[in-house]
Amino acid sequence: MVNQRQAALAAGAITLMMLTAACGGSPSAKERQGDDVKPAANSSEAAKGYGYGAGAGAAGGYGAGDAQGAAAPGEPGGKLAVRETPDLGQFVTDGKGFTLYRFDKDSAKPPASRCDGDCAKAWPPVPAGEVSVSVGIDAGALGEVARSDGSKQLTLGGWPVYRYAKDTAPGDAKGQGVGGTWNALAPDGKKAGGKGEKKEQPAPEGVSVSDNAKLGKILVDGQGRTLYRFNKDSAWPMKFACTDACLETWKPAKPVDKASVKGVAEKLVTTVTRPDGTKQLAIDCWPVYWFTGDGKPGDVNGQGKQGLWFAVDDKGAKVTAAPAG
Predict the structure, then answer these.
(1) Is the residue at 3 inside a domain?
(2) Is the pLDDT of residue 172 over 50?
(3) Where does the secretion signal sit in this chain (predicted)?
(4) Is residue 218 in some structural domain?
(5) Does the residue 325 lie in any domain?
(6) Number of domains in the chain
(7) Residue 100 lies in domain
(8) Please, what is the average pLDDT of the chain?
(9) pTM across the whole model
(10) Helix (H, G, I), strand (E, B) or coil at 52
(11) What is the per-residue pLDDT across 192-248, written as a single tens digit (0 to 9) for each?
(12) Which residue in 17, 277, 299, 301 could disulfide with 171, CB within 3.0 to 4.6 Å?
């Protein structure tokens, strides 16, 4: 009986070890919902301010609920960034990932802000100053406008910039279309998801295997672009080391539907959440990117760059071989 019990305990321990080995962390340590893997609560400084930390409660008048990291009214915009969703296309967020808005009753030429009093409580104006931009936003499009109380408000493309009090988490866009006069800001100051504007058809998405003459079997996206992983990233604890200027050269691959996965085990294909709240394709828990230096399908110009960037094979492992020829 003792031997049987010991054997059962040993088998249970082995099973638990196998489960916790997935993505390099334990189920209690990682936040995983289906295929969507988020950074651990305290795995990286990069996660701070994006709603992943411990604690709860309303923050800075931005509504009830868990709004850790929400900007308080009057807080500067910080480093503005561009986010993209299927519904809105590209739009601008503040340094904490909160959506920024414009008001149709304002004007851009000349800049004028007409949201005061109770309006400004629901739509806190973003102060001018202490603001910078990341890839995709022209710093020259930033400006300021004097409000009725004498304070200075940030403008983008001439339009005064606001947050929305009911956005309680990074990535929320509850203010979109409110009253038919409020819209998320596009990177050029126009309305995100603007009606009547011709939108580009989305590029085909997917993951498949390409038999590359130089590297062998490697993974490519729906446009045939080679997918790479970055040695300074980490699968678990989840860490994104390619940020800011790095993203000008290495573009995060978009998540894909499992139906568009060909030639690679579906279990290897997941979605991860970057610190700014955007989603990225991951292979075997590693975030993957495409290289702007690859001009056409089949190019592997990013292979071995800086000794840090590598293509991914059909088993989800990085390809360490140098391009032949």
Answers:
(1) no
(2) yes
(3) 1-21
(4) yes
(5) no
(6) 2
(7) 71-184
(8) 78
(9) 0.48
(10) coil
(11) 975 434 444 455 679 999 999 999 999 999 999 999 999 999 988 889 999 878 888
(12) 277
